[in-house]
Amino acid sequence: MHSREKSQLSPIGDIDITNAASFLHHNMNQRFSPAEWERGLKSCWLENAPNHGFKLTVNGEIVGVICAIYSEQEIDGRKEKFCNPHTWCVLEPFRAKSVNLVLSLIRQPGFHFTMLSPNREGEKIFSFLGFKSLDRHKKLLFHVPSLCILGRVRISYGENISSSHLSPVARTYFEDHWSFEWLRFLEFERDGRSGFLIFKQSTYKRLPCANILYISDKVLFENCWSSIRSWFLLRQGLFTSSIDDRMLVKPPLLSCSIQPGSAKFYMSESLSAEKIEYIYSELLVMDL
Residue 288: which pLDDT band, with cuts at 50, 70 and 90? Predict the structure, then answer.
């Protein structure tokens, strides 16, 4: 296929998902099977979402895609629509048309946009297009056991979590992400108030670590942290947690700064950076 052949840009519809998944498997990352790519492409939490991203085709054959996850999230009592562009892959002869895929997505009105896993070249392009950078600083939280392991805090994990204890918004977020088997869920409750967090098990300095990706109630998390860190260590054998600074009300005393994380961006006419979460994004929907 030659770059001088005429290409067409169009939305990825339901009928295109299988072909788009096959393209990504062969050209983006073969660690994910076509079925896994298809699951990622189908992920959507917005009724009547316009597409699953955009594709570039030549003679009906896909030569480039950018995927999108759509969702509706509640921010300060208002329902807001989000579009999360991710997985941007274009064959070398057609790279000159790459930016057109992004522009097709971000010119859709009525959405807030997040781009949470760009490569180095993508960082430059999204910055040029007006995306703002999210704080990349990270903390390592040490799981030193507390003398009051139980106290007034109730902790539930995995299948033992009862989402009925959560607020309606938190319950929705919990239930929407529960089916992704690489995610781990922990519920914490104190004085009748419940929250939950989502983490992936990873390693830091070769020791088991919890990579925390979402906290539904940051203030409650801070108040329950001594019990949570004890539970992580004694029940799960996890020595530390890694977490973005922006997810903490304030860093715990037993913590330290570590190497900043990868670049993450957002674009919104009305939302500030602290309102942006990683739920409903490739960071959770894909086992990256």
Answer: confident
Separation CA 281–CA 286 (nearest Å): 8
**151 domain-assigned:** yes
Q: What is the pLDDT of residue 2?
A: 55
Whether residues 122 and 143 share a domain: the answer is no
CB-count exposure of residue 29 (10 Å: 0-12, 13-18, 19+)? middle
Q: Which two tokens stand for residue 49?
A: 């979402």
Closest Cα to residue 138, out of 253, 256, 229, 283? 256
- Rounded to 10 degrees, what is the CA torsion of 262, 267, 271, 276? -30
**Per the confidence metrics, is the pTM higher than 0.90?**
yes
Domain that holds residue 105: 7-136+280-285
User: Same structural domain for residues 128 and 144?
Assistant: no
One domain for residues 90 and 146: no
* Residue 171: Cβ within 10 Å count: 17
